[in-house]
Amino acid sequence: MPASSLKVVLLLALVLVGISACGGATSMATLSPVPSALPSQATASPSVSPGANPSTTPSPKTTPAPNADGASVLGAIRTLLLITLGTLALILVTALSYLGIKNFTNFRTTIDNKEWILAPAAHIDEVTQVAGLLQDRVAKLASEVSALSEALAERREHLQILAASIAEHDDKLKKATLGVEHHAREKSLRHLALIAEILEIDSRSGIDAEATVGGIKVELEQLLEENGVTTYEPKPGEKLPQRGVSLKRVKTIPAPQPELAGTVKSVESPAYIYVGPNAQEVVLHPMSITVYGAPTAVEKEA
Asked: How far apart are CA 257 and CA 32, in angstroms?
């Protein structure tokens, strides 16, 4: 039963008890004797003459009748209280009936909306079975999660070992690269030191400059060859090549004949090309070349 309905019922019960107490008090007052009104005239006591018989006793006083108006008022009040009490009792029974019907309706609505509250024993067994299956499934999943956690921890350990190994190999690769660069630089420095020595000796000995330049050229060619650098230059009369050419170092002169336009006239210096380990060519220094351009207008008329 809702708290508000319970409060209403208790209030009505308290009112009913109070009215009952009032009715009981009134009934007791009605049943108790009512003092008579003062008589208008005092009752005269019989006189005893001296010559009377001493054995004769005086007669008792007469009791007056109760007041008729007071009794009628009390009876009317009692009747009114009984009617009021009956009316309140009827109201109380009606309120209790209404509240009972309302609570029963709410209870039925609750049952209709939540049939699982009063599920039969078969449904309870089914729910218990499903709960057991779910519990087993949860336990299995917990075991799988534990196994996966252990596998993940093992993989993390392997990754840490692999990362340490990669760092070690990177360190070795850096050292190896530095070693290769050092050896390559060492060869170049040796040739440069030798060239400097040739220049110094020839300068002190007064040797001809052409002989000094020849020796330096030999050393430079050997140094470039050991480091994978080759020279390239086209022959006169060939078409202008694409290899080792930069337009900034191409000189053009008018062709004496139209058929010579676009061909090589002469090569002032070859192109120096480096071929790396992956066979990819890198032009270290482009060639200086002169080619024939379009003939002039006079040559065209001729």
From this structure: 165
Q: What is the pLDDT of residue 108?
A: 64
CA 50 to chain CA centroid, Å, is 127
Q: State the pTM of this model.
A: 0.37
Q: Residue 115 in 3-state DSSP? A: helix
Tell me the per-residue pLDDT of 259-278, one tens digit each, with 9 for 90 and over: 889 999 999 999 999 887 77
Provide the token pair at 36.
């008579």
Measure the CA–CA gap between 208 and 223, rounded to whole angstroms.
23
Buried b or exposed e, range 248-258, using 16+ CB within 10 angstroms? ebeebeebeee
Identify the bridge partners of residue 290 per DSSP, sorted by sequence position.
251, 266
**Quick one: how far is CA 157 from the chain centroid?**
29
**Residues 84-140: pLDDT tens digits?**
887 887 787 787 777 777 776 766 666 565 554 555 566 677 888 888 899 999 999
Is the distance from CB of 146 to CB of 154 less than 8 angstroms? no
Structure confidence at residue 7 (pLDDT): 63
The three-point CA angle 130-136-141 to 5° equals 125
Classified as helix, coil or strand, 286 is coil
Query: Counting beta carbons within 10 angstroms of the beta carbon of residue 27, is it exposed (0 to 12), middle (13 to 18) or buried (19 or more)?
Result: middle
And the tokens for 99?
């509240």
The CA-atom distances, in angstroms, between 177 and each of 121, 162, 185, 229, 281 are 81, 22, 12, 20, 21
